[in-house]
Amino acid sequence: MGGGFPFDREIGLGDGSLMQNLCDRVRKLKANSFTLVELLVVISIIGLLAGLAVPAIQGGLDRAKQQVDVSNVRQCGLIAFSYANDNDGNYNGSLTNVSSSLQYFTNLISMGLLNSPKVLSGNGYTAATSTNNISAQNVAWAYVSGLTTSDDGQIPLFLSKGISTLSSNVSLSSVTTGWKTKGAVVYRVGNSAEFLKAGAGGAPQGSINLGLSTAATNRVIQ
User: Fold this and answer.
1) How far apart are CA 40 and CA 174, in angstroms?
2) Does this model's pTM top 0.90?
3) How confident is the model at residue 15, as a pLDDT?
4) pLDDT class for 9, splitting at 50, 70, 90?
């Protein structure tokens, strides 16, 4: 027993083997790890790709919403066209004085021609739950009063709310609802519907080109 514990040597050897194993693992870990610079470069690249992807994704979402709005206003236009045909081509029909687009559409509802409140909604406007509780906040379309089916087919019958005058180029700077300064949804007397993007078709930035040969004097009802 005076020679010490008989296992000292084995324990010492075991410890040395363990330390060597740990050192080997640390060296392998370092070899397979990113340096701080490499990590920052990777993070920067990911941030750059995300910055490029977000506008593209947003643009795709906007285009999908625009197509929904165009579909909705087209359905409203076809219903209004049917109503006008029953009233000697007059879109106002039996309404001698239209004070709001809400009044115009509720008239179509009362006539049994419009039975889905969803087609009245658009970007920034929620659809009413039923035709019995529609308010101005559920109607995305302004109505151009006083038109007939024989008028210039390029004149809008319905368009996004916020536009109060019709001309060749219409400024969107004061529009605070719907698509705002991005553009506007238009349904024309000639039974065509489209989304007009601001600045497209030769229009100045922040404006839309309605393609009218002369300024239209028809009244736009919000």
Assistant:
1) 44
2) no
3) 56
4) very low
